[in-house]
Amino acid sequence: MGDFKPLLNINGFAMIRLAVQGALDGGVSRVCVVTGREHERVRDALEGIDGAVDPFPGQGRWPSVSFVHNPAFADTDMLHSLKLGLRSLPEDVDALFVLPADVAAVSPRTFGALSARAAQDSALIFRPEFQAVGGHPLLVKASCFNTILAFDGDGGLRKALDPLRVEPVAVEDEGITLDADESADFAVLAAYARATKGVSSSITGKLLDEFETPTHIRSHGRAVSELALRMVRRLNARGCCLDSELCRSAAALHDMNRLEEHHSQVAAAHLRTCGYDAVARVVGDHDNTQGFDTTVFSESLIVFIADKLVKESHLVTLEERYEPALRRFSAETPIGQRIRQDKAWCQAMLTRYEELTGDTLQ
């Protein structure tokens, strides 16, 4: 492709930002971006990016993004850039992921799956596979670093790793196989990301404008998205590997047509027609616990809980949030029974969240 791939637009984000955010959400504690052409623009595209937040300073590792510039980018290959990145890493790094900037739709859960496998397996290199097709990122343990740095032949990283066994790890993530080498490849990647990832604030704003969402409902959506992000970052610090941008954008849009009947399903149907399938799923789930797995933390569950803890734009307790509905519908009515069931389930999941993260929300 003639365009500069890392800055191509996907879901309102520069491709490089989507790739880095996925890594941070997947539990990667430090991201080193090796730049060449358009160095400053790449830095600008990643301004303000964030990952998991460890609420216990000193007991965990704070994520960060650093940059190394390859001034000889026009005359060197990916292996040369990788060596520059390797030399910049702190000595306490025990493994790294190798991810090309145009492999931008990898699920955070894939990073988590590779890390979990590496912790249990004596192999030194791990490669994800989707339906027996290999992809990125590679997970490389620190004992391989000197082998990579010492290699001075032809053939790039693949040849440098030839003497070492690469262990395949099966994942349910087609994104590992998709890149933007050609225009047709980029079209496939962009469509896949559209269906599986969150969208930028500029796109959520356009969707809210399209539905003529009132100001007070937009304020509620912002408050819910802020709380959802707080929860996701703390859960990701505990290895949950949730997609933060999916949570943020779905939370911002969950009530975009709240004044309509069956608003969540109408909104979800519209989002699906736009190709935003994952956002549609979370929006459609936000007022219906029957629609998703209530036994594990997921993006749908986070937006559901965050919505219950925000009244208009203020944080409230579950008691305050449910009290009007409990007074209106008695326990003898089907809707009253469902409300009480939802409240009990929501309280149980909130207790699990607070025990896991130490973050008290009410």
Overview of the structural elements:
The chain is an alpha+beta fold and 362 residues long. The protein folds into two domains: 5-195, Spore Coat Polysaccharide Biosynthesis Protein SpsA, Chain A, CATH 3.90.550; 198-357, Hypothetical protein af1432 (Orthogonal Bundle), CATH 1.10.3210. Helices cover 48% and strands 11% of the residues. The protein is built from 15 helices and eleven strands. It has helices at residues 15-25, 39-45, 78-88, 108-120, 145-150, 156-160, 183-196, 201-210, 215-236, 244-253, 263-273, 277-285, 299-308, 318-328, 334-357; strands at 9-10, 13-14, 30-35, 64-69, 95-98, 125-130, 133-134, 138-141, 166-170, 310-311, 314-315. Strands 5, 6, 7, 8 and 9 form a five-stranded mixed sheet that branches. Strands 1-2 form a two-stranded antiparallel ribbon. Strand 6 and strand 7 (133-134) form a beta hairpin. It is elongated, with a radius of gyration of 22 Å. The relative contact order is 0.10.
Layout: helices, strands, pairs:
Layout: E1 9-10, E2 13-14, H1 15-25, E3 30-35, H2 39-45, E4 64-69, H3 78-88, E5 95-98, H4 108-120, E6 125-130, E7 133-134, E8 138-141, H5 145-150, H6 156-160, E9 166-170, H7 183-196, H8 201-210, H9 215-236, H10 244-253, H11 263-273, H12 277-285, H13 299-308, E10 310-311, E11 314-315, H14 318-328, H15 334-357
Parallel strand pairs: 3-4, 6-9
Antiparallel strand pairs: 1-2, 5-8, 6-7, 6-8, 10-11
Helix pairs in contact: 9-10, 9-13, 10-12, 10-13, 11-12, 12-13, 14-15
